[in-house]
Specification:
This protein is α+β, with helices and mostly antiparallel strands and about 400 residues long. Helices cover about 20% and strands about 25% of the residues. The protein is globular, with a radius of gyration of 24 Å.
């Protein structure tokens, strides 16, 4: 997949000692609230300090008490709000929404783990790229499909270009631009595991769509420079490669994690790498410390059945691991949404929004979105509807789980 902005932080979990402030309205006096240590007001907001480990439980408790969560924000802890990761709530009984807790907030930051401290980044830069060789260039779109997509594998022998699942590499196409300067690099999401398709740590693979569009003024069909270069590569051809880059789409180390993947088209690339790492026998043999036993769910949007990239691989995994992998297609030109229009990925997410929301509330769940930027609004709309059933403001909750909600769209 072409990826114009592969960058960001690692996919690490927050520690249980992280604190958040809930602004809550509408709590009513009842047997449950009578047990609290502060008065319940008929209007205004109550501010509660909640540990990360108890966020889901407190959301449910607040709902039972008739409350509505107005906002959630991280708390800058200086030792007075909680100690040693305590999960006890501390209320700030304020009379109006203008009142704020005394503690100062700070932007969300990502937790750091030793496992993610050695992520390879920019081992090769544009001024001194690694020169690899094309090993194979295979067609992915079946007969009758729309467009051209290729699975391209490069030999990395003789260099030190290594990477992790979820990262990207840069490709510098041969030739020069209309000003006589070398072409600028394009970033593509890696479609193979760290061991490569041959499992020998000597290859990297990409999933590339031939870009074609009409010039807005002349109407002439224009082909993308780098995608054309890659899709036309012959085995044995040299390729200038940079990178790897990116930390936003890295998998968590926890083999019990839930992994929800939402992809359109060539956005499947990083998810192919994830699924190989999770389920392929030979790959699992190479990773004794990572034996995936969680639950993976891929929601994949494509225009037609022949456009289902890696179809045989995906359906084989689904058949072999029905308890650990769920595969859901949104085939826009063959399936209809409830309104009678085309079935896009956001419609599938809306269809399963309650189940996704239930999973997202679990701290071990990570969500990855990769592909066309246009799907984000529809996904957010579906998740907002599901969260609202529990009086949760989705956008606020989404910000509170940014370390588990990973997006790479273009």
């Amino acid at each position: 997949m072409y990826n114009p902005s592969a960058a960001g932080g690692s996919a690490n979990s927050l520690s249980g000692s992280r604190l958040f402030v809930y602004e809550v309205e509408g709590l009513r006096q009842n047997q449950e609230t009578d047990k609290m240590e502060y008065p319940i007001r008929r209007s205004g907001s109550i501010f509660m300090t909640v540990s990360y480990a108890r966020m889901n439980q407190e959301m449910q408790r607040i709902t039972r008490m008739g409350g509505r969560i107005v906002s959630i924000r991280p708390l800058d802890v200086n030792g007075t709000a909680a100690t040693n990761g305590s999960s006890a709530l501390k209320a700030e009984p304020q009379a109006s929404t203008s009142a704020q807790p005394k503690q100062q907030s700070k932007p969300m930051t990502q937790a750091k783990e030793k496992a993610k401290s050695n992520v390879p980044v920019n081992l090769y830069r544009p001024k001194d790229p690694f020169v690899g060789k094309c090993i194979s260039n295979e067609k992915l779109v079946a007969e009758g499909g729309i467009g051209e997509v290729q699975h391209i594998t490069f030999d990395l022998s003789g260099g030190d270009l290594h990477y992790l699942e979820g990262q990207s590499i840069g490709i510098i196409p041969d030739g020069t631009d209309d000003k006589g300067k070398p072409h600028k690099l394009r970033l593509y999401s890696i479609g193979s595991t760290r061991h490569g398709d041959k499992l020998d740590d000597k290859t990297v693979s990409l999933c590339v769509r031939q870009l074609e569009y009409k010039h807005p003024e002349t109407g002439e069909v224009v082909k993308g420079v780098c995608s054309t270069f890659l899709c036309n590569l012959e085995p044995g051809a040299d390729v200038k490669i940079t990178g790897p880059v990116g930390k936003e789409m890295l998998l968590p180390d926890d083999p019990e994690a839930n992994i929800i993947m939402m992809a359109t088209g060539t956005g499947i690339a990083p998810f192919r790498a994830y699924l190989w790492r999770m389920f392929k026998d030979d790959e699992r043999d190479l990773n004794p410390d990572y034996q995936f036993n969680g639950f993976a769910w891929l929601i994949f949007g494509i225009p037609t059945t022949p456009n289902i990239l890696y179809k045989e691989e995906l359906e084989e995994i689904q058949e072999r691991y029905p308890d650990n992998f769920k595969l859901t297609y949104a085939i826009s030109r063959e399936q209809q949404n409830p309104e009678g229009g085309r079935m896009y990925i956001q419609h599938r997410v809306a269809e399963h929004a309650d189940a996704i929301w239930t999973m997202v509330k679990q701290e071990k769940t990570h969500v990855y979105i990769c592909g066309l930027k246009g799907m984000e609004d529809g996904i957010d709309e579906a998740m907002s509807a599901a969260a609202a059933k529990e009086n949760v403001v989705w956008k606020d909750y989404q910000r509170s789980i940014k370390e588990r909600w990973h997006v790479e769209t273009y």
